[in-house]
Amino acid sequence: xxxxxxxxxxxxxxxxxxxxxxxxxxxxxxxxxxxxxxxxxxxxxxxxxxxxxxxxxxxxxxxxxxxxxxxxxxxxxxxxxxxxxxxxxxxxxxxxxxxxxxxxxxxxxxxxxxxxxxxxxxxxxxxxxxxxxxxxxxxxxxxxxxxxxxxxxxxxxxxxxxxxxxxxxxxxxxxxxxxxxxxxxxxxxxxxxxx
Length: 195
Hints:
Order of helices and strands: EHEEHHEHEEEEEEEEH
CATH architecture: 3-Layer(aba) Sandwich
Strand order of the largest sheet: 2-1-3-4-12-11-10
Structural class: alpha/beta
Largest sheet: 7 strands, mixed
Number of strands: 12
CATH topology: Rossmann fold
């Protein structure tokens, strides 16, 4: 039986994630309203786009608390770019935060605005020479220590130069770049294996 991937579809590059998972044999469910969260799915994708718009819509549509509870309960999550900002515990250049389930500090538009967009290749844990597309990408400034209550550590799984560009924490995998905009399915394949 194929896995069902719920993709947050209120705004952003959700269709690109859907196409990639569908080529790998997974089914996709678009999350557009609160009732969609009552359906069965095996994992969640938080796509790139405008994090402030996504965060606002998720709250206005009554989806926020349910999604946060699902993430905290161990639902596997793949987040890219804006999705990473939604998960981050702290945002260094913005007072607004969202799910706060991923113990990292991020910086919005760390590489500059649209003109700061670029492509490169880099290694990810278990995946070599992965094409990385940065579009108004956030930066991961640091991983946070959750203290005695939580012995799990944030695993750094990708760096571009000395900058952290991908992390994994428990059920959450997040990247600052856009793997869904490439033709390389290896990150999505690895995520399906984790489910």
